[in-house]
Every structure is written in structure tokens, then in C-alpha cells.
Write a structure and sequence with these properties.
The chain is an alpha+beta fold. It folds into 2 domains: 77 residues, Roll (Ubiquitin-like (UB roll)), CATH 3.10.20; 73 residues, Orthogonal Bundle (DNA polymerase, domain 1). The chain is built from 5 helices and 5 strands. A hairpin with a 2-residue loop joins β1 and β2. α2 packs across α5. Bound molecules: FE2/S2 (inorganic) cluster (FES) (2 copies). The site of one FE2/S2 (inorganic) cluster has 10 residues, from loops.
Length: 164
């Protein structure tokens, strides 16, 4: 429904040009879910602490509860739905499956984006570096051990891919 508070938000979302009516008072995670119908980014704390709402905006990993939708108008946005390629999981997504790196999946978007961001800059991180990289992402289920294993596994897979 259009109201005086509504504007037409236009973005490239997971590689596709999309427009949707969005309330100016919304933050980005609300606009993505309610305006664009993309439900991968989750609403958690809404205070920037849990990381459940994480997406990429113009190549930068952001917590989408901390950004007004209007500020992201015209941006290129990637959510977990746009992470794989040609219908296949990314190496990091596959590693999370292989190592049981999630249970309910609520934290998963944030964990995956944090892991990819880490591995883009360092393809052989220590466990301490992995734990540091995901410190802004809270998981209520896994105890983190399998997440660290998954990210280590993803790093190995990336190195193997680069070497081949
Ligand atoms: S909902 Fe955005 S950080 Fe928690
Ligand atoms: S798998 Fe449930 S919050 Fe992380």
C-alpha cells in the first residue's frame, strides 16, 4: 500500500534489478523482507549486536538493521539467497553443510557473510582469527565449534580450488 511515507526503492538485488514500495521509516532488513519478500536476512536484536540481518551492500558486509532503507536505495545488495552460483552452493555454504555448522539457521546469513569476508582477505586463518571474525554474529544453537570447523573447511576448499 502506498502512503505519504512510501517511496519506490530501486536496487540490484541478488543480480536482478528490482523495485518495491518501501516505507521511509524502515531499516534495510525490514525493506528487504516486507518490500522485496526476501526472507534470508533475519530480524533479531535490531540493535546491531546479533548479525542475523547481515547482507552485502555494494560489496561491503553490513548489518541491515543498522541502515535506513533509503540510504541503500540504488545499491547492489546480496542476501544469502544470492550467495551461490548457477544454482550451486558457494564453497563456504557447502562447508557449513558438511561440518554441521548450523542448526536452526537463524544466524546463518551473518555467519556465512562474515566467513566469506574473512576468507576473501586471508585464505588460511587460525582458529583465533576465525573466532574474532565471527564475534559480531551470535549463534544460539551450535556452541560455535562446528562453525569454526566449517570455516576452516571452507578455507581448505578455497586453497584447493586455487591450487587446481
Ligand atoms: S538484527 Fe541486525 S544485528 Fe541483530
Ligand atoms: S544455528 Fe540457530 S542461531 Fe545459529
Amino acid at each position: 500500500m502506498t502512503t505519504p511515507q512510501t517511496f519506490t526503492m530501486s536496487v540490484v538485488l541478488n543480480g536482478e534489478r528490482r523495485c518495491a514500495p518501501v516505507d521511509r521509516r524502515m531499516v534495510l532488513v525490514e525493506a528487504l523482507r516486507e518490500g522485496f519478500g526476501v526472507t534470508g536476512p533475519k530480524v533479531g536484536c535490531m540493535t546491531g549486536d546479533c548479525g542475523a540481518c547481515t547482507v552485502k551492500v555494494d560489496g561491503k558486509v553490513v548489518k541491515s538493521c543498522m541502515e535506513l532503507a533509503q540510504a541503500a536505495d540504488g545499491s547492489e545488495i546480496t542476501t544469502i539467497e544470492g550467495m551461490g552460483e548457477d544454482g550451486r552452493l558457494s564453497l563456504v555454504q557447502q562447508a557449513f553443510c558438511d561440518h554441521y555448522g548450523f542448526q536452526c539457521g537463524y544466524c546463518l546469513s551473518g555467519m556465512l557473510f562474515a566467513a566469506e569476508d574473512l576468507l576473501d582477505g586471508d585464505d588460511d586463518p587460525t582458529d583465533d582469527e576465525i573466532r574474532y571474525a565471527i564475534q559480531g554474529n551470535l549463534c544460539r544453537c551450535t556452541g560455535y565449534q562446528n562453525i569454526v570447523r566449517a570455516i576452516r573447511g571452507a578455507a581448505e576448499a578455497r586453497r584447493a580450488e586455487t591450487a587446481s
